[in-house]
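Quarterly update, task 2.4: zinc ion-bound model.
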Amino acid sequence: MSSIQRFLSVALFAAEKHAAQRRKGAAAEPYVNHLIEVAGLVAAATAEPDTNLVVAALLHDTIEDAGVTEEELRERFGADVAHLVMEVTDDKSLPKAERKRLQIVNAPKKSVRAGTIKMADKISNLRAIRNSPPVDWTEQRKAEYLDWARQVVEGLAAPNPVLKAEFDSLMPSRTQPATDQER
Ligand code: ZN
């Protein structure tokens, strides 16, 4: 199978697994838009082609949000891809606040490749919050999300420089008030 055929079959697998899911924003885009955006960010940010990394980016939410198992990913896409997806998957048996805390705590232990997917994921989410925020999100909730995402990304030991620059460009500038409390 050529790499183009492989990418398309992975994209179709991810699209089918997330078919019932929409983005949380007001525009409620199909979830696959997010997956293709994250994979595109990863592909554009890595100088050496890393096929498995881009494949894992397309699949990064399949275990956490679409009921796919690590075993299924290993059988279909290989151990390297399955391992990468596991590295960016939260333990859904834990409460949300604890999962978010652990993302910050565990960021320094992530491999460079997993950190690359994580940053691309956060960039996609920050863009979504800017362009089509969930209707029930207050300015404070958006600011809290930005602050949490910044703590995760700043914890990465060796962040991809291209994605780090893009991430930083989405942060509010230091000269402007970041939260309601600082205003
Ligand atoms: Zn995601």
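Highlight for this quarter: The domain at 3-170 is CATH 1.10.3210.10 (Hypothetical protein af1432).
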